[in-house]
């Protein structure tokens, strides 16, 4: 039959007296005796009875032995614990008081996010995102993390007076006079008529080979004259700019003790040999070799000259071929070299 056995089951030893039956009673393992008959999934023996359970993903039915698939009434995750449904939530959600429903956790409000101080926390379902702080310039306002233009005309946040019409532009507005300007003029933000520079406002104001010249209220096209930057001049055919050699033309500004070197579009001044650059005054100063190298450039007398020096000798000596050393007359030279020998010769 389908009727389940009662959960009270005991056996009494036949050799014992009835008076002592309560003390000698033994529990029967119904799960083993009626294997596969009591519970649909799992059977657990307990003292004097048994308990049915279900596999994970199944729920024990009210009859106590049947199992049915389901989430146990949980809105997200369900785990069977001793035959009963235990509800839990996914990360980013929390279980409400009914023990079954999960609701989103606002990490931005609970301060459980991991955004940097320079970022802005934005809550999402089950999580959050970190977005950079956005500061909008004047004339814009932040909407959905985007700086959008403020229509001052529609919001009546302009200061256009009577006789003017407000026109919204990106980040600001214009006050246009109700009076029209003549051709070649336009209205500024104050409603005044100002000249239009057609040379910059028109994409191709003049034909190739012609220069655009703006005039008040109009413009004109003239034959193109090549204009070169400083350091360059027009080529003989007038089609290109070529470098000017300031050193050759004598238009450089190199001073005394400096050598001019031409460079593309300019020139460079370097110090001549015997001169040293003064970074403070930006000049080349003469180097006094006689003071800087005493006794090393000349054998006897040293005289400084602009950019160089001159060696000379004292009386009785003449300058050697190297321009630095001094040499005397032959007999005096021997006298200074061999004084004792000379004295002996004189005595003899």
UniProtKB/TrEMBL annotation:
This is (Atlantic silverside) hypothetical protein. Keywords: Disulfide bond, EGF-like domain, Glycoprotein, Repeat, Secreted, Signal. InterPro entries: ECM_structural_protein, EGF, EGF-like_Ca-bd_dom, EGF-type_Asp/Asn_hydroxyl_site, EGF_Ca-bd_CS, Growth_fac_rcpt_cys_sf, NOTCH1_EGF-like. It is found in: Secreted. Residues 243-285, 286-327 form the EGF-like domain. It comes from the Eukaryota. Pfam families: EGF_CA, FXa_inhibition. The lineage of its organism: Eukaryota, Metazoa, Chordata, Craniata, Vertebrata.
